[in-house]
Each structure stands twice: as structure tokens, then as C-alpha cells.
Amino acid sequence: MKKSLHEKKLTSDCGSRGPGFCPSHNPKETDNEKRRFISESKDHSCHQKRDIKVAPDVLNSEKQESPSEFPAGHNQKNKGKAKTSSCDSEKTREQLSSKIDSKSNYDKQKSKSLNATQKVALIELTEMLKSLFQDGYTALMDQRYRGAEQAFSQLLNILDPKELKQMNLAITDYLVIIYGYATALLGIGQPEGLSEAENQFKRILEQYSSEGYDCLAYYGIGKVYLRKNKFSDAIYHFEKSKTMIKFIPGVLVWPTTSEIIEESQSERLQSMLENYIEECKFPPEPDAVCSYQNCHGHSKIQIYLTDPDFKGFIRINCCQLCKIEFHISCWKKLKTTFNDKNDKDFLQDPCLTPDCGGIISKIIIFGSTGQIKCEFEHKVVKERDPPRPVVKQKCSR
Fold it and tell me: Is residue 227 in some structural domain?
């Protein structure tokens, strides 16, 4: 019974191992094969265990040097070096961290000091701006135009239109500074200053037209031309300013003050414009009129003693009561056609007026102050007609 069971087991094992494997039916051979099979399985499991145990050693051997490769003394020295190097690295880290901390503290203190310095500088700058505003508009009101020009010029140099908010200022404040600067130049009245004033008023039109104060710019340009005695150009700009009064957004004040700019009040500006327009419609008689045909070097032939570029003029009279006048520069150009004769040599020459048979009898040169600089005269004796004979009539009784 046991034998049959054993055989069955073997046959089942034979079937499980596959069709090519079948154990012998000899019981001894079967036992031997059985032992061999068990020993092989043990060896195989032992090898697996060894592989599993060796794996950690292999990993450790990669990280550390093998004791078989170096002597024991060498390993102890390496351990000592590793300890000292780790201590040094720790000290270095501590030093670096302390340096970083000190640097961060220094940066914080520096930023605080910078912020404090900036605040102080901002306060000082604000005070300086207030002082310049005060100086500028008070000088303008007192007609001290050079002082006003200096104050407003400094303000324009200091302020940047893009950084007005930092100074608690608006665009209209900057516009007022430009207007004050141009008005001061207009008050000084020098030719170069008048040209610069016109440019500043035009700057308001070109760059700040959206603020709604074009009427003040046209008003200023009109005053520039009026100062130059160019009445037709002045009246054009005054009329244009008059049409824009209704668009003034509000009354302007001098920055950092409560002082109102007179021209920014609609009613006041209207009255001023009407007076200037009336003056331009009926201008005063000129002091002289240039007779040179090629008078292109000057903007107008009319000569006023109040012209900003007035340098004097020359007046020539003839015996037939002709009177002709020239700008000094025009007279010099005319003399080149007469071989640059001296002024005095023109006396007794034919009159320069066409269709006049008289001769030049007097030459008067006016200087830049409007006073007579020199005068040349040749007295022409008029021939008298022979006296008529007197007929005595007898009285009849």
C-alpha cells in the first residue's frame, strides 16, 4: 500500500516536471535522486541568502575604502582628517553665516539711513521750491522782472514734469511756472528774451493744450508782438485768445500760495484783451519809416524808439522839404552803391527822392537812445526874385 502511494507520488512529480522528465522505477535510484534534489535546493537557497547579505556590504564598500586595500594606521589617519575637516567646515559655515547676518544688518541700517537722508533731502527741496515760488511771483508783481526770471528759471531746471507727484505738484503748477518765466522775459523786453518768451508760450500750446489754458498762451504771444510794435500780428493773437476765454477750466494760483493769477480770471482777461485790441487797431504814429527798397533785414519798415531791437536811424532832408529815413543797417547797405561815401559827403547831392529836383541840405543821425548823435547841414540860400518896380501914382483931385 505504501509502495503504491509512493509510486503515485513519483508519477505525479514526473507529470508535474514535464513530459521529458521521468524518474527511474528503481527505489535506490529514486532515493539517490531525491537526496541530490534536496541538496541542490539547499545550495540554491544558501546562495540566494548570501547574495542578499552581500548586497549591503557592497554598497558600504562603495562609500568607504576597503580595509584590505589600506593598512589599519592609514584608516585611523583618514578618520582623524575627516573629523578635522568636518570641524573646519562647521567653523567656516558659522563664519559665513555671521558675515551674512552682519551684511544683512548693515544693509538694513544703510537702507534706513538712506531713507532718512532721502526724507530730509525731500523736505529741504520742498522748502526751497516754496521759497523760489514766493520769490518769483512777488518779483513779478513788483515788476522786478530779472529777479522773477531767475526764480522761475531755477524752478524749471529743478523740476521734472514726470516727477511732479513726489513734490505734491500738478501739471497745472508746472504750466504756471512756464507762464511766469515767459511773462518775466516779456517784462525784461530784450530781443532774445522776447523770442524765448514766445517759444515758452508756444510750448504751452504744443505740450499742455489738454489743460485748457490756450487762451493764456495766445494772450502771452499777443503781448510779445505788441512789445515788438507789430500791431497786426498782436491783434490776431488777442482775437484768438478772446474766443477761448469760455474754455478756461478755472482760476489759477501761484503754486504753494493762495495768490490768484489775474489773467486766469475770465472777466479780467476779457477786459484786458479788449483794451489791447483797441490799442492795436489805432497804433501810434511811427517815429520814422525806412525808405530802403530792400529793407528785408527788419521785420517791419516802421521805426519806433520803443522797438526792442532799436539801434537808431538816419534822416535826410532836402531843400525842397523832402524827408526820407533809413534803418542804420539799411543806410549802410545803400551807401555801398555810392562807393561808401562819408555821410557828410552826401550834402549838396541830388535828393534821393524820385522826381525831386532839390539837393540834400541836412543829414541827422539818431543813436540807439533816440537822441541826435550827429548832424550835418548845408545852408542853401534861396535866390530872391528881383523886386518889382514901384509905380507912383499921382493923386487926382
Answer: yes
Q: What residues make up the domain containing 299?
A: 288-377
> Residue 302 and residue 300: Cα distance in Å, rounded?
6
Count the domains in the chain. Answer: 2
List Cα–Cα distances, 287 to 40, 301, 327, 375, in angstroms.
Answer: 140, 11, 12, 18
What's the one-letter identity of residue 343?
D
- Taking only the tens place, the pLDDT of each residue in 329-375 is 999 999 999 888 899 999 999 999 988 989 999 999 999 999 999 99
What CATH number is given to the structural domain containing 169?
1.25.40.10
**Does residue 201 share a domain with residue 185?**
yes
Cα(179)–Cα(144) distance, rounded to whole angstroms?
16
Mean pLDDT of the chain: 78
pLDDT in tens, 71-119: 444 444 444 545 555 666 676 766 666 666 666 666 565 555 556 676 7
The pLDDT score that the predictor gives to residue 24 is: 41
* β-strand partners of 377: 362
- Identify whether residues 344 and 218 lie together within a single domain: no
The reply to whether 214 and 143 lie within a common domain is yes
d(CA 213, CA 205): 8
In Å, what is the CA distance from 195 to each residue of 46, 186, 192, 213? 110, 9, 5, 21
Instruction: Looking at the structure, tell me whether residues 168 and 316 fall in a common domain.
Output: no
Give bridge partners of residue 315 from the DSSP assignment: 325, 364
Residues 346 and 309 in one domain: yes
Residues 307 and 245 in one domain: no
Residue 245, CA atoms < 13 Å, CB-side half-sphere:
18
264 close to 252: Cβ distance less than 8 angstroms: yes
pLDDT at residue 12 tops 60:
no
Output the pLDDT for position 121: 73
Report the distance separating Cα 264 and Cα 248, nearest Å. 8
d(CA 345, CA 67) in angstroms, rounded, equals: 128
List pLDDT tens digits, range 62-78: 444 444 444 444 444 44
Does any domain span residue 136?
yes
Burial class (CB in 10 A: 0-12, 13-18, 19+), 284: exposed
Enter the pTM of the model: 0.66
The pLDDT value given to residue 30: 45
Quick one: 252 and 131 in the same domain?
Answer: yes
Q: Are residues 304 and 157 in the same domain?
A: no
